[in-house]
């Protein structure tokens, strides 16, 4: 499969990248290319220009800023999975990044491209929702921040405007509890058939004081399973209650169906992996 003809430019700064974007009616940014290039080969996307932003150094940093970790849009999945700041402060994010695709994808794919592409089966959108991240963008009118709850609008659709560049993502660092990521991966692509991110905090008696659960691969975009959270909040997570609550994981979405997983199968797997994720988070929280 061969894409349509396109121009190619390489930007060395955010300002140059935005200038090139405004100079061409149909241009796209490219970094790792693992999301855009397959679409171009299938002619689902035919940009007139590719603007290579890979060499922009200011988008490749990871830093702790108070109670937040700020990750540049060009940080690769491998970088995120192995960065000590992230491993210590955001362990579920490091775990998820280390399970994205295969080694080649992790070495080249970026967090900015992953979130901006918004594939329903991508891993990192669920982690952004779990932590309550903020997406930082830059456009001709200056910087703009998007709370993650308002960012994912649908399959491969976000609030990011065509004139904007995703610069970084900032994650609040939880001050208590434990978080994990569980994933049932497609055996060929590595994408999530079902992925579940869970964060749980309990008191000394094992009562759940706070809980967040986010899923990907199940609906048309990543989402918070608020029904599961409400069923468990303020209660002791007995095995019976956990089993019952986990079956609420797909209550709020239209469940996807494809040649690999029927709707009923995906619902079942979502319940199993939701229970597994919450149980593992609880076990970590009470060690």
What does this structure look like?
Helix content is 33%, strand content 26%. The protein is globular. The longest helix is centred in the last third of the chain and has 23 residues, at 263-285. The N and C termini lie far apart (52 Å). It folds into 3 domains: 7-52, 2-Layer Sandwich (Uridine Diphospho-n-acetylenolpyruvylglucosamine Reductase, domain 2); 57-172, 2-Layer Sandwich (Uridine Diphospho-n-acetylenolpyruvylglucosamine Reductase, domain 3), CATH 3.30.465.10; 178-285, CO dehydrogenase flavoprotein, C-terminal domain (Enolase-like, domain 1). A 5-stranded antiparallel beta sheet has the order 4-5-10-6-7. A 4-stranded antiparallel beta sheet has the order 11-12-13-14, with helices on both faces. It is of the alpha+beta class and 287 residues long. The chain has helices at residues 14-23, 36-41, 77-82, 84-89, 91-97, 103-108, 111-117, 124-131, 226-232, 239-246, 263-285, and strands spanning 7-10, 27-30, 49-52, 62-65, 68-72, 134-139, 142-147, 152-154, 157-158, 165-172, 178-185, 192-202, 208-216, 223-224. It has 11 helices and 14 strands.
Which secondary-structure class do the elements indicate? alpha+beta
Shape: globular
Report the C-alpha radius of gyration, rounded. 19 Å
What is the fold-level CATH name, i.e. the topology of the largest domain? Uridine Diphospho-n-acetylenolpyruvylglucosamine Reductase, domain 3
β-strand percent reads 25-35%
Q: Domains counted in the coordinates: how many?
A: 3
Level-2 CATH architecture of the largest domain: 2-Layer Sandwich
Number of alpha- plus pi-helical segments = 11
